[in-house]
Amino acid sequence: MSTTTTGAAIATSCALVVCVTARVPHRILEGAGIEGWIVALVVVVAAVNGVRAVVRAPFTFSRSSSPGAWAANEIKVFVVSVTAGSALTIPLYALLRSTPNWWLLAWLLFSAVTLVGQFAMPMLLRAQAGPIEPADAALTARVVALGARAGVDIGAVQVAHGGRDKHCNAYVIGLGPTRRVVFGAAVAAWPADVADQVVAHEIGHWRLGHAARRLPLTVGAQLATFAFAAWMLAWTPLLHWAGVPSIGDPRSYPTLLLLTAAMALPARCLLAALDRGQERAADKFALSLLDEPHHFAAMLDRAADEGEAPRALPWFRRITASHPPIDERIRSCMRYVSTA
Q: Is residue 335 assigned to a domain?
């Protein structure tokens, strides 16, 4: 997250606090004479997103190529935010208003989405990858041999020419006993000894069962988050601060936005710590498999220089980062050299 993005996030958070303390939703709904909760919620969603767009404007304008492009993008973001926000919050508020067990039903829904997303991941990756074509014979032979060395049957090797390519990535996907390796075009063009390190790392994720191990923890973290949210959103001092009789009141929308990130932060930090541990384990797998630490370090340097992976992170970004910073991973690689 850049300094500009961080500034915009802080500004929008402050705007939400102002919306709550100044009773902006209350004033709008009273002034318009709106009573039905669904219409009231849509109006509040639009108003809050409008306020957030205004305070975010100086930050987004500085990154725009022209005033016209900036205005068009801001209008598009506002329309999408209001539409998506209304589509998501209307069912949520229906649950909040209908049953004290809303959190359990919401958890079941989120868990189902998580499970479906896990099984749909190969299709999502394929959709993001852009045009895909078979890799050349030399690259295919090299990857198949590397897979055999790791005990993995590689059925196909492909190169993607869009989407994830800009991240200098490669990934291993496929159901059943046979895997498929997909390279971003940038990685496919790297020197063979360097590109092999990426493949070994990705095979490590699969061989170590990282996705399967993460799934139950993700579902459990979601349950804990929703249970905590149910307790927090029924807390009388919070409702008094928001100026609402219950969290199901549409006027509580900016309060709900403020609390969402805070309530999800512990689970986010926990899962990020797990992700970083899995990345370190996959690094060690690749180092053990190929025993080429200098090539592995060269791969990490390219990930930083060409893929814009961060070399270092401040603590407040590190606690939610899914990958250790590049310089830390290189130091670990060098420690592998010293102990090998």
A: no
